[in-house]
From TrEMBL:
Pfam family, one: F-box
Superkingdom classification of source: Eukaryota
InterPro entries registered for this protein in UniProt: F-box_dom, KIB1-4_b-propeller
Source organism (scientific name): Deinandra increscens subsp. villosa
All copies of domain KIB1-4 beta-propeller, residue ranges: 20-257, 434-670
Protein name as catalogued: F-box domain-containing protein
Record-annotated F-box domain positions: 355-386
Amino acid sequence: MEEKQVSCDEKLPTVIAENQHYQYYQCNELKERRIRGCFHYWVILSDHQDDILWSLWNPIASKLIRLPPLKLRKEEEESYECCLSSPPDDEASVFLLFSDSVPTIVFCRLDRKRKGLKWTEMSYAKQLRSISNDANNLGCLGPLGQPTCWNGKVYAIDFGDYMSVVHVDIVVKPKEVVISLFPFVEMPRVLFVHHPARVRSYIRRPFLKGTCIDLLFYIQVDFRDEMIDDVHLLKLDVTSMMWKEVVELEDAVLFIEIDDDNYSTCYYSSAPGSKLRGYVHIFCESRKVIYSFHAKDRTLSLSSMSPLLRECQALAWPMLESKREEQDEDAKVVVRPVKGENNVFDSTTSGHSHLLNMPLDILELIMKHCVSVEYMKFRATCKHCYLAAPSIQWSNKTMLRRLHSYSLVSPWLMAFDNHRGIITFIDPLFGDKYYIKTPQELSDGDRIYCSRYGWLLMYKVREEVDDEEGERLMFFNPFTSNIIELPVVDYLEIFCFSSPPTSPDCMVAGFKSYGASHVYIHFVSQGSTWHQYALDFGGDPYSYQFPSFSGPDIYALSNNEVLEVFKDFTIDNYGWKVVLGKAPRSCHCKSSARYFLSNCDQHRLLVIVGEFGESVEVFRHNESTLEWEKIDELGTHMIYISNTSCICLEVASPEMGNKIFFPRLLQDDTKIVFYFLETCRYHTFDGKIIEESLGADFFGTKQHCYPHTWIEPSWC
């Protein structure tokens, strides 16, 4: 085995490791090489192009092991994922390469006593089919991927139809290496944050990472339109062999790197005192950005990649792992079961407020003059106030009279914390947070389709298996806890509704891009029927985004290009026509754009937002010329954008006008970020005062990973 000391050159790539101090490493082997992983404090390197030259580098001991060239015929687009079973000075150490396209493992035994190193290729197809109980070859086979070391053993994910974690058992004999596969544990079942019909546009990337402190992590990254939309972090409980969600990483940190070739690797380290701790950091090479998932509050931050770290090819991350040995003992991870515990939110506190140390009857008198926001804030102040302000039904006649004189200046950002059983509301003007209990009728799997008029249209997960096909829908008003269930319907992709479901003329419309019927209409007060309508697109692919009612008509954007309108829906007939055949293209967007359609009085507005918020443009549909006209101001209107809502309203307070609000918060604060068309920059409010510009993009902000949307407070 070839092992040598590393020589350095000042002109070669530099590695930076964050620990107690910054340390710098330079290595000739980094030139035209890329990092492929880190195992047992050894960094794995390969050539950029062909995965022929592999080497192992210990940056702390300044040792380098070069492996013989890998001269095997590869399938087109085939690549490898690597794993080191034990440190190279172990006589049983084996370096393994897992093909990502065929069920084969290529391995090299790293025995110092052996005169020469050689590669051996083996197929595990029969073994994998055997442990999958698929003797009849009915399922899709493998391959294995995401290999990792944990408790001195090698594990990998079976990416076939029977997805599970497999134990790759390695027995080193004097003249041979025997590799056997054994079933270990099923993959965790992780729910999508968004409703099921939209998951077809999502890509899920699973990662498996073992550590030196008896932790086996499963990380799932959800991509939507090539953007990271959600992250799930779980840990295996070896006692129950159940996956439990990690609620806090504390001093631990995980790094995931995804490059242009769709290659990915994962690192783990403990980083006490570091700003990196408590996060899963995901580096996307193609976009030069880092997504940082905070496990405790389930938020996803966006940061630009520093030029220095780009040049270093994100080498700081494996360096952190290669130096973690002395810190692992202090790392802690807090977990909970995957399905979530039935925690009850307690808005009381154990302390006492000296400011409100007054008789209970006086507090009760004060509460009689409070409504909505004030009532919610007062009730959550302390135990004394909680007793003075009992839970009330806001829809009763007394409360309605008080609400008529109460004016709210803005919709709120609403987020479901499914695990703690609470719903959080954030006021975009003042940044205040309000909490209420999640009704028992709602469960973890419930997802938001759309929001309007203070009501959510939601998908309700089936808690019991029944013979009724389709999906269950319900209206939910979080302010009154009222729930209105709708008839079961086929799985649809997107919905809108015309008015509050309590009104006699409420109509619900749903769309899908497959099957015999494409539009579904339900009149809420007229029975349990969904009327179905077929559209003829001539075989062209299509999908609708943000349909919305304008009076009795429904406007929708098809394929982010065509503005269409549906008119005069009856049981047997409807009108359908193309209003405008081509949507405008952004002039300033440097990344893929997202399109949001909304109604503004009698007009249609189209908002085009860059992937990272670097471009925001607003267009108004001119019904006379049938063209989109770019506008530079909203006047006395404001727009609220999220994945499930695009609402344009007339302002009730002048400081809210001419702004577009996003479901994003400052990275270290609860202030909501908005785009001000006057400055073409992002800002936050300090009270009613507009603060200085945050910049021209979303970098330095975060968003909820919990189901969230904008909602107009309504106690009706």
